Amino acid sequence: MVSLVCVALVFFSCCPLTTAGQFQIRLMGSSLAYQGRVEVFHSGVWGTVCDDYFDLDDATVVCHQLGYVSAVSYKFNAYFGAGTGQIWMDDVGCAGSESALQLCNFGGWGIHNCAHSEDVGVVCHNFTNATMDSVRLSGSTLPNQGRVEVYHDGVWGTVCDDGWDMDNSNVLCHQLGYSSAVSYKLGAYFGTGFGHIWMDNVNCAGSESELQMCSFNGWGVNDCSHSEDVGVVCHVGQVSTTTPTTLLKVRLSGSAWANQGRVEVYHSGEWGTVCDDSWDMQDASVVCHQLGFVGASSFTGNAYYGLGTGRIWMDDVDCTGNEMDLQNCHFPGWSVNDCTHSEDAGVDCHTSTSATSTLDVRLSGSFLPNQGRVEVYHGHVIMTAYLVLFIIVMVMLFGMCFTVVCGELSVTIVGTCWIRM
Asked: Is residue 291 helix, strand or coil?
């Protein structure tokens, strides 16, 4: 009997079970234990994880593996500093239910197309008591927005959108560490959840520190389906209480008319577009006022004035209409968006301006504001230099008189036009 037991012990020690406990993972590059650069241990060496396709489901698996309840957010572009040595994992795709990051789909150990400038990081909830009620955002590639989910009785579940408002959204965003809410989304905007619908008819005053402190029907008491799962968009960064000292540069592109076009803004040395999500007349009016027009006549979406290129700087813009500058309006943060250029916003401003006696000058055709093609405005239309030069030459050589139609006016020779020099 003793010999049989020994044989059994030797057998099990040679063939260990593949369990999550044997997969080592750590967070580095931060003085706080619950956040940092993700590193995994493989083949006797620690290495980093590339941020390609990394999302909140992947971050949640990391945090669960480390003993935290959930993830608050994830960070791209070596936010917690560049690692060294191996980049062990790339294109990680977790469902969110895995017990270890190494059990998720990925390209293979050491197979990647990344540099350490793409090392991913996570921020976990800074408590590890899995019995505590917590909240998270799911169903989005951006950490500041998604389907609202709460953790109760050991299980994650969703929140019904019945009676949901901005006060509820602000409490939720504050609880996640954001400064405020930008907007909320009804009708499973971020996809349908599954399992429990934990909360319904939530009614916050706005001053609560946690969503679970607000009034609601009771845990699991609802008359909803997952098609009513609520979502929120939180504001990234702190809300400034002062007006920026430098006005945001704004221009309209993609149209022959100076008073209409695709909205583009200049930030961090680069021109970029504005996404049409939640774009409305108040937003358009701020743009038009900023450009010197008296107001907006309409707004457009779906890249009506053509697709822009490069950055999409702003999304979910929410102006009251009284702001002097588009950057003073509420939006999630610079370059925080879930858009493509097929959603570039545009405006159509009233053709009369608040300073019609001033000759306007602009530079076009360049990504930099201090260089480009010189254009002057004295009317409503952009004309090419070829047409203008042709008319001038004809007049000088033959004394011919030409009438050029510019906008709503017929004028002789050049007329009141944008003249490209």
From this structure: coil
Give the total residue count for the chain: 421
CA 2 to chain centre: 65
Look at residue 217 and give its three-state secondary structure. Answer: coil
- CA dihedral (28, 29, 35, 39) in degrees, to 10, reads -30
Residue of 324, 330, 267 lying closest to 292 (CA atoms): 324
Q: Which tens digits make up the pLDDT trace of 82-140?
A: 999 999 999 999 998 888 999 999 999 999 999 999 999 998 876 544 334 478 888 88
377 pLDDT tier (thresholds 50, 70, 90): low
Give CA–CA dist 202/385, Å, rounded: 62
State phi, psi for 2 to the nearest 5 degrees.
Answer: -65, -40
Alpha helix segments (H runs only) across 70-175: 166-175
Q: In angstroms, rounded to a whole number, what is the distance separating the alpha carbons of residues 178 and 236?
A: 6
Instruction: Please report which confidence band the pLDDT of residue 347 belongs to, taking 50, 70 and 90 as the band edges.
Output: very high
What sign does the dihedral 307-312-318-323 (CA atoms) show? negative
Mean pLDDT value across residues 315-338: 86
- The one-letter amino acid at 43: S
In 179-227, where does DSSP find H-type helix? none
Do residues 369 and 308 make contact, with C-beta atoms less than 8 angstroms apart?
A: no
Q: Are 349 and 259 in contact (CB under 8 A)?
A: yes
Q: Looking up tokens 């994650």, which residue turns up? A: 156
Residue 111's contacts (CB-CB under 8 Å, 6 or more residues apart) are 90
